[in-house]
Amino acid sequence: xxxxxxxxxxxxxxxxxxxxxxxxxxxxxxxxxxxxxxxxxxxxxxxxxxxxxxxxxxxxxxxxxxxxxxxxxxxxxxxxxxxxxxxxxxxxxxxxxx
Length: 98
Known about the structure:
Elements: E1 2-5, H1 8-14, E2 20-22, H2 30-40, E3 60-64, E4 67-68, H3 80-83, E5 89-93
Parallel strand pairs: 1-5
Antiparallel strand pairs: 1-2, 3-4, 3-5
């Protein structure tokens, strides 16, 4: 099971309490995790990645094993610790402003 930590506003939209646990088929990639997440929580479609391109939304970041995965290819396998559920995949809302 993959543990996904969503920011507060996306947890509210999905009506999920706490972290989300997902059963993701191997190989565990960011794209597959998001596919399963959007399948279980269809209200999240278009909020994490763009409908047309599938690219990450500008003000969201992905972290796995304390590393920024926001600019990695979506089909690159996630670290083994995330794939085995020992470490969470973090979806973090970026803060902008001045």
